[in-house]
Amino acid sequence: MPHDPGGPFDTEEHVLADESEGTVVSGDPSTVGPTGVTGETGATGPSGGPVGSTGATGEVGVTGPAGAPTGASGLTGETGSTGDTGLTGITGPPGVGIQGITGFTGPTGITGERGCPGPAGAPTGSTGVTGPTGATDGATGATGETGSRGPIGAGFIGPTGTTGETGAAGSTGGTGAGVTGETGVTGGTDISQDLSPQLGGDLDGNGFSISNVLDIQGSTFECDDLRVDAAGTLTAPTGWNQMLWCVVSDETPVNWSSKPVVLTEFRSVDRNRTMLDLQHYREWRLVVDVASNPALTGSVLGVQFSDDGASSWFGLDNGTEDTMSNATVSDDNNAFVFTSWASINASAQIENCRLRLVGEGGDGIENTQYGTVQVQFRS
């Protein structure tokens, strides 16, 4: 039967009750006798009355203590041996794709224009008069006899023998019969502006003798179209000497993004400027290759100069401040264009003349691309 805490079996002695007789026997709780023979099952009593209502749920018992902590994990077994490697599959056949056709070689680029020839060197002065040659017909003296050679030692090579005596010198030949010319007058070391200098040989160390003097004062000389007048002024024909300023090389075209309407420096930046010595140049022209995306109709390019270190800018031919040059090219069409030769303003004919390319008349939209851009100068 279930144990009932607090019931009669929790006393210090057990009490056995015989329900049939009502007799109570007390005994020593420590000495329990053997279990008796189970009696026959009695007849089933009559069913009880109707089941009563379910009693109220008892209170939840106190939670018992937590169980023992989980034991440590067992040791990991050894890794089994690796199985044999399977056989390698058969290699598939190579691909049979057709090789693409080789592209055509592009056309060779156009050879660039030949550079302008350099200026010709100064004319060579006239050769001086050759002096008379001295006589060279004197007889050569006879050569003396060679001295005898000492004997060679026998056996091992002994010490070098004594040098034999030098043979007697031959007699000196007679003096030539040519007449010696008179000694020239000793020249000075500077004959500049001297109409009667002293003459002599190689006075200035250039390997030439001064043998004659010609009065050229007031004379004019011409050589290969160069002209030197009596005052010493050098003049040359138009175009005799040329110089080239490459603003843009033909190797790498450049863009002018959104060229504006108002007068603006080329490409709206100042890194394409230069400085040249224009003291001896008289004319200029602008050469431009408009490669693609031409500007708005009426758009032009020109050149300005500065004689005050880039503080002020003037048209290269008209000398007017903050204006376009009179000579311009149109960049509103894909074409190779150039101006006529124009005069260089006198204020620009200086040693350190700053130059820049300018443009105006754009629409602020087109991105015009330029190939070659040059400014050419000639004397």
Summarize the structure.
This protein is mostly beta strands. Strand 3 and strand 4 form a beta hairpin.
Q: What oligomeric assembly is this protein in? A: single chain
> In what range is the share of β-strand residues?
15-25%
- Which sheet architecture does the biggest sheet show? 6 strands, antiparallel
**Order of H and E elements:** EEEEEEEEEEEEEEEEE
For the residues shown, what is the average pLDDT?
74
Please tell me what the overall shape is.
elongated
Distance between the termini: 140 Å
Low-pLDDT windows of residues:
7-25
> Which secondary-structure class do the elements indicate?
mainly beta
Which bin fits the share of residues in helices?
Answer: under 10%
What Rg do the Cα atoms give?
64 Å
Find the count of extended strands (DSSP E, 2+ residues).
17
Question: Total number of helical segments?
Answer: 0
Write a structural description.
This protein has 379 residues and is an all-beta fold. The protein contains no helices and 17 strands. The chain has strands at residues 15-17, 24-26, 221-223, 226-228, 234-235, 242-248, 254-257, 264-265, 274-276, 283-292, 300-306, 314-315, 329-330, 336-338, 342-343, 353-360, 367-378. The strands form four sheets. Strands 6, 7, 10, 14, 15 and 17 form a six-stranded antiparallel beta sheet that branches. β1 and β2 (24-26) form a beta hairpin. It is elongated. The protein starts with 14 loop residues before the first strand and ends with a strand.
